């Protein structure tokens, strides 16, 4: 290559830098200031949401969505500074949006699922739910995922798309929940006596819902024993502690009255 080519190339490069350089430097400054401003705005938004009566599940969703909006607006401004026309900028983002949308169909489904969860409210942050074979308290609902914390301390992250299309068992939506105890006794046990003893044991629980019944009924007559169903009501948030305590209370009351839970027996006959 001759010397004139390199001189021409150098001249064109210098002209390009002189033309684009100031705008590029200005874009960098705007980007840095924009990031700082977004952090300030997010702090203000979180503070405002914290002081408001907005539901916790909606707060987390708004925070996540606001980050995407702020950064999208910042990139739009930087594109304008660099000389990208608005129509071209929209066309670029539109094409990129289509490509990203095809690549991230699952994420778009999760976003739509998050909207459905917030609108129809099958559960909220703090609720105890059973979904997709997972049981736990809802810790967070953001724009793409729902996080629950199980009783053994595990955090499970589930896509909103899957959650919104699944059967959700919300176990704390209602204030009160019924405890069902399945107990088995021999056929020679007196049902009325069993009812008195079991109700007496369950009725001592301090967090029992006194306005709702404690009842005991014969539920099933089996081949070797009869099954008794004992039921009481407590506040939903107290269900599991109350369940175990009620089970212990019934066992202690049966022991006190000398009533034994039957042990399976097999009769063996010897032929002469």
Automatic annotation (TrEMBL):
Domain Mechanosensitive ion channel transmembrane helices 2/3, chain residue ranges per copy: 68-105
Cellular compartments annotated: Cell membrane
Residue span, Mechanosensitive ion channel MscS C-terminal domain: 181-261
Bilayer topology term: Multi-pass membrane protein
Transmembrane regions: 20-41, 61-84, 90-120
Mechanosensitive ion channel MscS domain span: 107-171
Domain of life of the source: Bacteria
GO MF assignments: mechanosensitive monoatomic ion channel activity
Cross-referenced InterPro entries: LSM_dom_sf, MS_channel_1st, MS_channel_C, MSC_TM_helix, MscS_archaea/bacteria_type, MscS_beta-dom_sf, MscS_channel_2nd, MscS_channel_C_sf
Cited SUPFAM superfamilies: Mechanosensitive channel protein MscS (YggB), C-terminal domain, Mechanosensitive channel protein MscS (YggB), transmembrane region, Sm-like ribonucleoproteins
GO cellular component: plasma membrane
Family per record: Belongs to the MscS (TC 1.A.23) family.
Protein's name according to its UniProt entry: Mechanosensitive ion channel
Organism the protein comes from: Gillisia hiemivivida
């Amino acid at each position: 290559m001759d010397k004139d080519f390199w001189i021409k190339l150098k001249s064109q490069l210098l002209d390009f830098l002189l033309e684009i350089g100031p705008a590029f430097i200005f874009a960098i400054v705007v980007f840095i200031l924009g990031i700082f401003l977004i952090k300030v705005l997010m702090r203000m938004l979180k503070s405002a949401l914290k002081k408001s009566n907005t539901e916790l599940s909606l707060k987390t969703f708004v925070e996540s969505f606001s980050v995407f909006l702020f950064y999208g607006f910042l990139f739009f401004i930087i594109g304008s500074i660099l000389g990208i026309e608005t129509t071209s900028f929209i066309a670029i983002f539109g094409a990129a949006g289509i490509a990203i949308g095809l690549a991230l169909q699952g994420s778009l489904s999760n976003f739509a699922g998050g909207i459905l969860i917030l609108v129809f409210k099958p559960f909220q942050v703090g609720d105890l739910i059973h979904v997709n074979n997972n049981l736990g308290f809802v810790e967070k609902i953001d724009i793409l995922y729902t996080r629950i914390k199980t009783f053994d301390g595990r955090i499970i992250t589930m896509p909103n798309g899957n959650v919104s299309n699944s059967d959700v068992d919300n176990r704390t939506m209602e204030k009160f929940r019924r405890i069902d105890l399945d107990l088995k006794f021999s056929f020679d046990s007196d049902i009325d006596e069993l009812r008195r003893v079991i109700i007496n044991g369950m009725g001592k629980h301090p967090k029992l819902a006194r306005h709702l019944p404690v009842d005991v009924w014969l539920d099933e007559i089996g081949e070797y024993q009869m099954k008794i169903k004992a039921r009481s009501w407590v506040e939903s948030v107290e269900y599991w502690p109350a369940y175990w305590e009620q089970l212990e209370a019934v066992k202690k009351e049966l022991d006190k009255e000398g009533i034994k839970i039957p042990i399976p027996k097999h009769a063996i006959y010897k032929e002469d």
